[in-house]
Structure prediction request, 114 residues.
Amino acid sequence: MNREEAIDWLRLKGVNAWKRDWSVGESIGIQAGRPLESRGGINAYENVFYLYPDLKGSWIFLDCNAMRQKPIIEPPSYPNLESALQAVWDALKQLKSESTSRRGEQSVTNPATA
Prediction:
């Protein structure tokens, strides 16, 4: 699986995902929270996940909110993109579950926007 296929897989599941090329390389951005006000064409979210490859070919899962809370903790690494995607999907489902519990609702289609 390559980056474009991973983004397509997430989008098929109803998750907002995009290509991002920046200091960590060719990464995948994943909306993990509600949208905030956008300014100047830049979209902002309560939380964002990133998947990016390291120099060994593994994939790193960066949860921006977790890094703000515990910046010393090294983000988890996965041997391939498929296992990193599964970790992202599990984290999105956990966010959905927590959000649903707080709101008392039964279901939300997209765990990222819950």
